[in-house]
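User: Working on a comparison across species. This one is Transporter from Paenibacillus ihbetae. Can you predict its structure so I can line it up against the others?
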Amino acid sequence: MKDIIRVFQIAFTYIGTIVGAGFATGREILQFFTQYGHWATLTIILATGLFIWLGTKILMISRRIGAKSFEDLNKFLFGAKSGSWISVFMFIILLGVNSIMLAGAGSVFMEHLNIGYQTGLFVTMIGAYFILRKGIQSIMTMNSLVVPMMITLSVAVISQTIQSPGATRFLTLTTDQSLPAAWLAPLLYTAFNLVLAMPVLVPLGNQTEKTTVVKWGGILGGAGVGFMLMAAHFALSAQMPGIAQFEIPMGSIAAHLGWFVQMIYLILIFLEIFSTFVANIYGITLQVQQWTSWSSRTISFGIMLFCYFFSQFGFSSLLSLLYPIFGALCLLWVLRLTLFGSPLTNPK
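Assistant: Here's the predicted structure for Transporter from Paenibacillus ihbetae:
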């Protein structure tokens, strides 16, 4: 029973790290999948397979080599010198992503809770600072509570969408985008999000004793991400193209389930953004501690202050500009991980 609980904790933490600002709000799914019409269903299946395979590989390799930070894994994959440079590059990526997460939290407060954007930023940062004092266990506990509720609401959104006139649009939706762009999108999306999840998956794999627990946690986590991707795409397709105008499109879809469910969904969107923000700050802090002699609290505070200044640019503008660029640059890393060998056949 203890192993089963640990499997689900790993899976939920994996899902919770991926389901951040862009995913939970629906902007990310519109950007990388739904805008490509009926092709998105197939590309989501491809992305799901990659999340299962490569996410599990990150966990397994990290456990095998005892990696304490993402730099340890990079050095193992690329060598000491190249791994160090790649880690610096990833550090910059993660700072940009955390700024997007923080901006997403501010957008939830402003657009749907009628509370100031700056208030949302400060609430997120203060809450993150206190949770970070508890370490990886608090991150796992938080995701073990939030992710099951998100999955439950994804099922509710599917049930509501099935009854709508546009329920079959995910199979027939047309697009002006090119076919090569449609099939490149899931590769970019998976590459970026695996790099995003790596600072959390590396210590998670390292701190888990049993190989089978790590393996099944990765498999269930990747499958869970795929399910939530497909559920969101199914709902968004039924509301296209009008839904694309909203900063938080999934929040608008939840409004069709009633005011009470909408408020719960919006709170959960914020919690998912918050949990990803906390997890990323934790992973970056571990990395900076290897580079400096600063305390973890000082590092975390400095990182959040940096993210606060960059979050002033807004959520959707940062998302549309930075995510595709980050994904393209992360393809090299994912290609190396793909060619490294399979942890599922070599679990030692």
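For your comparison, note: The chain has one domain: 2-338.

User: Helpful, thanks.
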